[in-house]
């Protein structure tokens, strides 16, 4: 079972959460000037990394707040949880 630690509610079963995709993606500054190909790249072309990956999650069946997680996509080990707008904590060896 995957446990996720909500910054506000504490550790809960993963079934209470919904995945929100890759974290820290910046919206284009001039969206009206993008071509269709550039929009498609922004909307659909995300990293598919193996190993540590920064993700967004929402506590859908709890406080309903969004937060970020550093999760290893191979082992599912969560090594950091932090609030939206915060920088990811430094990785420790």
Tell me what you see in this structure.
With 93 residues, the chain is mainly beta. The protein has a single domain (1-24, 45-93), classed as Folate-binding fold (2-Layer Sandwich). It contains one helix and six strands; from the N terminus they run βββαβββ. It has a four-stranded antiparallel sheet with strand order 3-4-5-6, with no helix packed on it. The two termini are 25 Å apart. The model has no long low-confidence stretch (mean pLDDT 92).
List keywords for this structure.
35% strand, mainly beta, 93 residues, four-stranded antiparallel beta sheet, Folate-binding fold, globular
Give a short synopsis of this structure.
With 93 residues, the chain is mainly β.
SSE order and pairing:
Blueprint: E1 3-6, E2 10-13, E3 18-22, H1 36-44, E4 52-58, E5 66-72, E6 78-83
Antiparallel strand pairs: 1-2, 3-4, 4-5, 5-6
Q: Any idea what the radius of gyration is?
A: 15 Å
CATH superfamily: Folate-binding superfamily
- Arithmetic mean of pLDDT: 92
User: Distance between the terminal alpha carbons, to the nearest Å?
Assistant: 25 Å
Count of individual domains: 1
Low-confidence stretches: none
The general outline is globular
Helix content range of the residues, please? under 10%
Number of strands: 6
Count of DSSP H/I helices? 1
How much beta, percentage-wise?
35-45%
């Amino acid at each position: 079972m995957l446990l996720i630690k909500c910054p506000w509610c504490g550790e809960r079963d993963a079934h209470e959460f919904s995945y929100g995709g890759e974290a820290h993606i910046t919206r284009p500054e001039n969206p009206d000037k993008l071509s269709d190909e550039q929009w498609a790249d922004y909307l659909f072309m995300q990293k598919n990394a193996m190993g540590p990956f920064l993700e967004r999650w929402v506590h859908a069946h709890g406080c309903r707040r969004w937060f970020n997680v550093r999760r290893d996509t191979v082992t599912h080990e969560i090594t950091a949880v932090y609030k939206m707008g915060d920088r990811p904590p430094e990785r420790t060896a």
